[in-house]
UniProtKB/TrEMBL annotation:
Coiled-coil segments: none
Family: Belongs to the bacterial solute-binding protein 3 family.
Organism superkingdom: Bacteria
InterPro entries named among the record's database cross-references: Solute-binding_3/MltF_N
Sorted UniProt keywords: Signal
Domain Solute-binding protein family 3/N-terminal: from-to ranges: 27-251
SMART domains named among the record's database cross-references: PBPb
Protein name, per record: Amino acid ABC transporter substrate-binding protein, PAAT family
Signal peptide: 1-24
UniProt xrefs under Pfam families: SBP_bac_3
Length: 254
Protein backbone atom coordinates (compact mmCIF):
# COMPACT_ATOMS: atom_id res chain seq x y z
CA UNK A 1 0.00 0.00 0.00
CA UNK A 2 2.77 2.43 0.98
CA UNK A 3 4.66 1.59 -2.20
CA UNK A 4 1.59 2.31 -4.34
CA UNK A 5 1.08 5.67 -2.59
CA UNK A 6 4.73 6.54 -3.16
CA UNK A 7 4.47 5.70 -6.87
CA UNK A 8 1.26 7.74 -7.17
CA UNK A 9 2.83 10.78 -5.50
CA UNK A 10 5.91 10.43 -7.69
CA UNK A 11 3.75 10.29 -10.83
CA UNK A 12 2.01 13.51 -9.80
CA UNK A 13 5.11 15.42 -8.71
CA UNK A 14 7.59 14.34 -11.37
CA UNK A 15 6.10 16.43 -14.21
CA UNK A 16 6.11 19.46 -11.93
CA UNK A 17 9.70 18.88 -10.90
CA UNK A 18 10.79 18.44 -14.52
CA UNK A 19 8.90 21.45 -15.85
CA UNK A 20 11.04 24.46 -16.79
CA UNK A 21 11.41 26.64 -13.73
CA UNK A 22 11.17 30.40 -13.92
CA UNK A 23 13.79 32.46 -12.13
CA UNK A 24 13.34 35.99 -10.86
CA UNK A 25 16.08 37.41 -13.09
CA UNK A 26 15.11 35.56 -16.27
CA UNK A 27 13.99 37.75 -19.19
CA UNK A 28 11.49 36.24 -21.61
CA UNK A 29 11.36 37.27 -25.28
CA UNK A 30 7.92 38.27 -26.54
CA UNK A 31 7.43 39.08 -30.22
CA UNK A 32 5.86 42.45 -31.02
CA UNK A 33 4.55 43.65 -34.36
CA UNK A 34 6.97 46.24 -35.72
CA UNK A 35 4.72 48.49 -37.84
CA UNK A 36 1.21 48.84 -36.39
CA UNK A 37 1.19 52.20 -34.66
CA UNK A 38 -0.47 53.35 -32.40
CA UNK A 39 -0.87 49.81 -31.05
CA UNK A 40 2.64 48.40 -31.55
CA UNK A 41 5.54 49.65 -33.65
CA UNK A 42 9.30 50.09 -33.61
CA UNK A 43 9.87 53.81 -33.08
CA UNK A 44 13.20 55.47 -32.20
CA UNK A 45 14.78 52.08 -31.57
CA UNK A 46 12.09 50.96 -29.09
CA UNK A 47 8.85 49.00 -29.31
CA UNK A 48 6.13 51.54 -28.55
CA UNK A 49 2.34 51.70 -28.59
CA UNK A 50 -0.77 51.10 -26.55
CA UNK A 51 -0.72 47.31 -26.62
CA UNK A 52 3.04 47.31 -25.98
CA UNK A 53 2.38 49.33 -22.82
CA UNK A 54 -0.39 46.91 -21.81
CA UNK A 55 1.80 43.84 -22.32
CA UNK A 56 4.70 45.34 -20.37
CA UNK A 57 2.39 46.43 -17.55
CA UNK A 58 0.64 43.05 -17.34
CA UNK A 59 3.88 41.12 -17.02
CA UNK A 60 5.30 43.67 -14.58
CA UNK A 61 2.18 43.22 -12.43
CA UNK A 62 2.96 39.49 -12.23
CA UNK A 63 6.66 40.11 -11.48
CA UNK A 64 7.79 38.76 -14.84
CA UNK A 65 10.57 40.39 -16.84
CA UNK A 66 10.02 40.46 -20.60
CA UNK A 67 11.79 41.87 -23.64
CA UNK A 68 9.59 42.95 -26.55
CA UNK A 69 11.32 41.98 -29.79
CA UNK A 70 10.05 43.64 -33.01
CA UNK A 71 9.20 41.57 -36.09
CA UNK A 72 6.92 41.84 -39.11
CA UNK A 73 3.61 40.32 -38.03
CA UNK A 74 3.73 37.20 -40.21
CA UNK A 75 7.32 36.45 -39.13
CA UNK A 76 6.47 37.06 -35.48
CA UNK A 77 3.58 34.60 -35.61
CA UNK A 78 5.64 31.94 -37.39
CA UNK A 79 8.44 32.18 -34.82
CA UNK A 80 5.84 31.81 -32.08
CA UNK A 81 4.09 28.92 -33.80
CA UNK A 82 7.36 26.99 -34.03
CA UNK A 83 8.38 27.75 -30.45
CA UNK A 84 11.27 30.13 -31.17
CA UNK A 85 9.32 32.89 -29.39
CA UNK A 86 7.09 32.41 -26.37
CA UNK A 87 4.38 34.73 -27.70
CA UNK A 88 3.46 37.38 -30.27
CA UNK A 89 0.91 40.19 -30.44
CA UNK A 90 -1.49 41.61 -31.73
CA UNK A 91 -3.74 38.79 -32.99
CA UNK A 92 -7.39 38.65 -33.99
CA UNK A 93 -8.05 34.93 -33.46
CA UNK A 94 -9.87 32.69 -35.90
CA UNK A 95 -10.26 28.90 -35.86
CA UNK A 96 -6.76 28.35 -37.29
CA UNK A 97 -5.14 30.67 -34.75
CA UNK A 98 -7.01 28.98 -31.90
CA UNK A 99 -5.78 25.55 -33.00
CA UNK A 100 -2.14 26.54 -33.54
CA UNK A 101 -1.61 28.86 -30.55
CA UNK A 102 -2.52 29.12 -26.89
CA UNK A 103 -4.86 32.05 -26.26
CA UNK A 104 -5.20 33.79 -22.88
CA UNK A 105 -8.49 34.59 -21.22
CA UNK A 106 -7.75 38.32 -21.18
CA UNK A 107 -7.82 40.27 -24.47
CA UNK A 108 -5.71 43.37 -25.02
CA UNK A 109 -8.28 45.65 -26.68
CA UNK A 110 -10.88 45.91 -29.44
CA UNK A 111 -11.12 48.02 -32.58
CA UNK A 112 -13.18 48.18 -35.78
CA UNK A 113 -11.82 46.75 -39.03
CA UNK A 114 -13.17 48.97 -41.78
CA UNK A 115 -13.34 48.68 -45.54
CA UNK A 116 -12.03 51.93 -47.03
CA UNK A 117 -12.73 53.46 -50.45
CA UNK A 118 -11.65 56.62 -52.22
CA UNK A 119 -13.88 59.50 -51.17
CA UNK A 120 -14.58 60.43 -54.80
CA UNK A 121 -15.87 56.93 -55.58
CA UNK A 122 -17.39 55.75 -52.31
CA UNK A 123 -20.59 53.71 -52.15
CA UNK A 124 -21.83 51.88 -49.04
CA UNK A 125 -21.11 48.15 -49.05
CA UNK A 126 -24.10 46.55 -47.35
CA UNK A 127 -23.37 42.99 -48.48
CA UNK A 128 -19.88 41.55 -48.88
CA UNK A 129 -21.00 39.83 -52.07
CA UNK A 130 -20.77 43.31 -53.61
CA UNK A 131 -16.99 42.82 -53.48
CA UNK A 132 -17.06 39.96 -56.00
CA UNK A 133 -14.32 40.46 -58.56
CA UNK A 134 -13.02 43.63 -56.88
CA UNK A 135 -9.43 44.16 -55.73
CA UNK A 136 -8.98 44.68 -51.98
CA UNK A 137 -5.61 45.44 -50.40
CA UNK A 138 -4.92 43.32 -47.30
CA UNK A 139 -1.85 43.17 -45.09
CA UNK A 140 0.14 39.93 -45.17
CA UNK A 141 -0.79 37.59 -42.33
CA UNK A 142 -3.68 39.67 -40.97
CA UNK A 143 -7.09 38.27 -40.07
CA UNK A 144 -10.16 40.33 -41.00
CA UNK A 145 -12.99 38.21 -39.60
CA UNK A 146 -14.53 35.03 -40.97
CA UNK A 147 -17.15 36.69 -43.25
CA UNK A 148 -14.44 38.52 -45.20
CA UNK A 149 -11.65 35.95 -44.87
CA UNK A 150 -13.91 33.20 -46.22
CA UNK A 151 -14.87 35.16 -49.35
CA UNK A 152 -13.58 33.38 -52.45
CA UNK A 153 -14.87 35.88 -54.99
CA UNK A 154 -12.72 38.85 -53.93
CA UNK A 155 -9.26 39.49 -55.38
CA UNK A 156 -6.93 40.10 -52.44
CA UNK A 157 -3.83 42.18 -53.09
CA UNK A 158 -1.25 41.46 -50.38
CA UNK A 159 0.75 44.39 -48.99
CA UNK A 160 3.51 44.56 -46.39
CA UNK A 161 1.98 47.49 -44.46
CA UNK A 162 -1.40 49.18 -44.09
CA UNK A 163 0.17 52.36 -45.46
CA UNK A 164 0.92 50.58 -48.73
CA UNK A 165 -2.73 49.59 -49.04
CA UNK A 166 -3.87 53.21 -48.77
CA UNK A 167 -1.24 54.31 -51.28
CA UNK A 168 -2.44 51.68 -53.74
CA UNK A 169 -6.00 52.86 -53.19
CA UNK A 170 -4.96 56.48 -53.77
CA UNK A 171 -3.50 55.46 -57.15
CA UNK A 172 -6.61 53.37 -57.99
CA UNK A 173 -4.62 50.14 -58.16
CA UNK A 174 -7.22 48.57 -55.86
CA UNK A 175 -10.90 49.32 -55.29
CA UNK A 176 -10.70 49.07 -51.49
CA UNK A 177 -8.30 48.56 -48.63
CA UNK A 178 -9.05 46.92 -45.28
CA UNK A 179 -7.63 48.57 -42.16
CA UNK A 180 -8.40 49.13 -38.50
CA UNK A 181 -10.00 52.45 -37.63
CA UNK A 182 -7.28 53.55 -35.19
CA UNK A 183 -4.46 52.51 -37.52
CA UNK A 184 -5.98 54.51 -40.37
CA UNK A 185 -6.44 57.56 -38.13
CA UNK A 186 -2.76 57.44 -37.14
CA UNK A 187 -1.64 56.96 -40.75
CA UNK A 188 -3.65 59.96 -41.94
CA UNK A 189 -2.15 62.11 -39.17
CA UNK A 190 1.41 61.07 -40.06
CA UNK A 191 0.88 61.24 -43.83
CA UNK A 192 -1.08 64.45 -44.46
CA UNK A 193 -1.18 63.80 -48.21
CA UNK A 194 -3.58 60.93 -47.48
CA UNK A 195 -5.89 62.84 -45.13
CA UNK A 196 -9.37 63.41 -46.50
CA UNK A 197 -8.96 61.04 -49.45
CA UNK A 198 -10.72 57.99 -48.00
CA UNK A 199 -13.93 57.05 -46.21
CA UNK A 200 -15.09 53.77 -44.64
CA UNK A 201 -17.86 52.04 -46.58
CA UNK A 202 -18.34 48.96 -44.39
CA UNK A 203 -17.38 47.49 -41.04
CA UNK A 204 -15.81 44.09 -41.66
CA UNK A 205 -15.34 43.03 -38.06
CA UNK A 206 -14.83 44.28 -34.50
CA UNK A 207 -12.43 41.75 -33.04
CA UNK A 208 -10.80 41.43 -29.68
CA UNK A 209 -7.02 41.49 -30.05
CA UNK A 210 -4.89 39.03 -28.09
CA UNK A 211 -1.37 37.94 -27.29
CA UNK A 212 -0.88 34.55 -28.97
CA UNK A 213 1.27 32.10 -26.99
CA UNK A 214 3.23 29.22 -28.48
CA UNK A 215 2.15 25.61 -28.11
CA UNK A 216 5.81 24.53 -28.38
CA UNK A 217 7.82 27.01 -26.30
CA UNK A 218 8.71 25.47 -22.90
CA UNK A 219 7.69 28.57 -20.92
CA UNK A 220 4.61 29.60 -22.91
CA UNK A 221 1.99 28.16 -20.54
CA UNK A 222 3.67 29.76 -17.52
CA UNK A 223 3.82 33.12 -19.30
CA UNK A 224 0.20 32.88 -20.44
CA UNK A 225 -0.94 32.38 -16.85
CA UNK A 226 1.20 35.26 -15.65
CA UNK A 227 -0.12 37.51 -18.42
CA UNK A 228 -3.73 36.74 -17.48
CA UNK A 229 -2.97 37.36 -13.82
CA UNK A 230 -1.28 40.66 -14.63
CA UNK A 231 -4.09 41.85 -16.91
CA UNK A 232 -6.67 41.14 -14.21
CA UNK A 233 -4.57 43.21 -11.81
CA UNK A 234 -4.49 46.10 -14.31
CA UNK A 235 -8.28 46.02 -14.58
CA UNK A 236 -8.74 45.88 -10.81
CA UNK A 237 -6.60 48.90 -9.97
CA UNK A 238 -7.54 51.07 -12.97
CA UNK A 239 -4.17 50.97 -14.73
CA UNK A 240 -5.74 49.39 -17.82
CA UNK A 241 -8.09 52.35 -18.31
CA UNK A 242 -5.28 54.84 -17.68
CA UNK A 243 -3.13 53.27 -20.41
CA UNK A 244 -6.05 53.36 -22.87
CA UNK A 245 -6.75 57.00 -21.99
CA UNK A 246 -3.07 57.93 -22.38
CA UNK A 247 -3.11 56.73 -25.99
CA UNK A 248 -6.48 58.39 -26.69
CA UNK A 249 -7.77 55.37 -28.59
CA UNK A 250 -11.52 55.70 -29.06
CA UNK A 251 -13.61 52.84 -27.63
CA UNK A 252 -10.74 50.34 -27.33
CA UNK A 253 -12.09 48.48 -24.28
CA UNK A 254 -13.02 44.86 -25.16
Amino acid sequence: MAARCFRLCLAILLPLLCAPAATADEVYRIGAEDDWYPFTALRDGKVQGMSADLVRAAFAASNTRVELVPYPYSRCMELTRTGHLAACFNTSPDADIASEFRLPQEPLFSDDILLWARRDNARPVTNLQQLAGRKVAVTIGYEYGTPFDSLTSVERVAVRRDLNGFRMLAHERVAYTAAYRSIATALFAENPELAGQFVPVATLHRPQLFVSFSRHHPQAELLLNRFDSGMRALHRDGRYERIIEHWQIHDATP
